[in-house]
Design brief:
single chain; 2 domains; 47% helix; elongated
């Protein structure tokens, strides 16, 4: 018996068709439930105005998945979205690594060229742009708020505060604003 298989697909839709996309996803899920070994499906969008949708479906084993993928029902369902939906990435994994486990197998088919990662020196510069001012503010506050705390504990509290701020707020914010520079494109105000 093979391991469960999860398929992750990144799909793009024509602008302004999110209602149709949602109906199409629900129809596909309803069809898949009729197939033996179907374990579930789901989807997520980065934002409400995003044209990119990330979908997952899971089958108990590879033969069950292959039966679904070769079925006329799935062919009809995919055909129903011609001109509305495009695929940009398909990924197959066994295990539940999307949640906890490392993958047993990992098969990725990327249908669009991936942008190369920015040079490390540019990444370091962008991190510095938010890390330095944030460190100054946090350290200045903690000198006044925690004056009697020994340095190692004050640094620990500072790191505990700054890590989530950097991870979830500051770095995503600065990365979005400096994306043009990180990818070596002209500044937005020059285009």
């Amino acid at each position: 018996m093979s391991d469960p298989v999860t398929v992750s697909i990144t799909r793009t839709i024509a602008p302004g068709h999110s209602d149709e996309m949602l109906a199409w996803i629900r129809a596909g899920s309803a069809l898949a439930t009729k197939f033996e070994g179907f374990l579930g499906s789901g989807w997520v969008r980065p934002s409400t105005d995003s044209e990119e949708w990330h979908m997952l479906y899971r089958f108990a084993d590879l033969p069950s998945l292959e039966t679904w993928e070769a079925s006329p029902q799935r062919g009809w369902w995919l055909g129903a979205a011609q001109g509305l939906v495009g695929e940009s990435r398909v990924e197959r994994r066994t295990g539940i690594e999307g949640w906890f486990d490392p993958p047993v197998t990992h098969d990725v088919q990327d249908l669009r060229p991936a942008a190369p990662p920015p040079p490390r020196w540019k990444q370091a510069c962008v991190i510095f742009l938010v890390f330095f001012p944030l460190s100054l503010v946090v350290n200045e506050l903690f000198v006044h708020l925690l004056p009697g705390l020994v340095l190692p504990l004050r640094v620990l509290v500072s790191v505990l505060v700054m890590t989530p701020v950097m991870t979830y707020a500051a770095l995503p914010w600065i990365t979005r604003r400096m994306e043009w520079w990180l990818q070596g494109r002209p500044a937005p105000w020059r285009t």
